[in-house]
Amino acid sequence: MTATETTDTTLRTVTLNVNGQTIRQEVESRTLLAYALRDAGLKGTHVGCDTSSCGCCVVLLDGDTPAKSCTMFAVQAEGHQITTVEGLGSPGDLHPLQQAFWDQHGLQCGYCTPGMLMTAKAMLEHNPDPTDQEVREFLSGNLCRCTGYNNIVKAVQQAARVMRDEAQAQALAGMVPSTAEGGAQ
Amino acid sequence: MFPAAFDYIRAHSAEEALAALAQHGAEARILAGGQSLIPAMRLRLARPAVLVDLGGVKDLGYLHEEGGELRVGAMTRDVTLERDANVRARYSLLTDTGAVVADPVVRCLGTVVGSLCHSDPSGDWGAAALAARAVMVARSASGERLIPIDEFLVDSFQTSLEEGELAVEVRFPTPDGRTHGSYQKIERKVGDYATAAAAVQITLGEDGRVTHAGVALTAAGPRPVRVDAAEKLLLGQLLTEDVIRAASEEARAASDPFADTRGSVEYKKDMARVLVARGLRASAARLGTGVTA
After folding, report:
1. Taking every annotated instance into account, which residue ranges of this chain make up the domain 2Fe-2S ferredoxin-type (chain A) (predicted)?
2. ipTM of predicted assembly, 2 dp
3. Confidence class of residue A99 from pLDDT cuts 50, 70 and 90?
């Protein structure tokens, strides 16, 4: 599109890359990303407060940027890789964060959980070994109305440990040539 | 609530954005991080007919020092300043401010320049920019002009940007080693607007006396309030407890807030005093004067 073109206020087609899949959807310019995702059947993205406060709608842009998808237009998301909670893991193959929320009971009603997971994922990308205080601060834009925060912090710390161990194992595996498997050369 | 309908234009360069502004005039608004504008649109407090999105203008997302200034591009996110080691080490006022703007997720998309252009008197960057003596860079078809932040922030949600102008950058003077600052904020909960907040920046001479003082308040008037009387009072002084107390009293006098659910006028005025005193003590402590924060 050039700068001299304007779109009309009726429907337009956006192409979104969500969890590695291409989704084409008819939206208005004013359609918020959270609603576009839910209209596409991705109901894991929740709309809680609709005022940019609660963080239930957080998705990731380009892998490591958390975004409140109720405070972004679907048209803005074109050209970005979007990850929703559906892209984090599956029931048979939980992401370490999902497993940790399960293990630590990091939820009560669960409504805030998708946003908590995605925000925690973004934080661990930049800070793989956070203090409890850092977890609390980074998650402070995600509200849990059941006040289950303590278990959420425990869950994030468990996931951080698992993910660090996995990263370390991968790094070690990378240092050892494949021909060296089973013993030193 | 959904915003009112609008036409959407994605610009891929500053020139494309300027062309769109030229075509649509006052009907058009610039969309940067969207973290203030989109909530305002959802509440129908803002109803731009045309949104010109800078999301595709990658070359406005920069942060570097040049010519004795920190230059922050229009698409540079708050989080970029927050994570920058040089900013954290040397720009204490900006670091303090960046840590309390909205919440961490909002800061991942929100931009410093966008916040200043939004010109919300409760926005944290306004007072910080005043205390730091920031300068805005506005680009138009006829070139660029520099606007001191004092002249840029005109009124609530009103800047001195002219029709057809695009704010492309904000510049913060680089602290020289004898300069430190602090941003102090009281908020009801994380992510809330300030009940009261104060930005302070101090430069000391070799003799420990103040050679530059910047003092400004958030949520204390129709625009961020620069406390000239406190700045004048501090100049040439040692940062003693008496001087700090006197300067902070000027902040109370200059504060002109309105009463709301966050507090009464008297409470907010008194908090302006308290926060300027805390900011001055924190700055003095960072400058190694022996004053403890």
Report:
1. 12-88
2. 0.94
3. very high
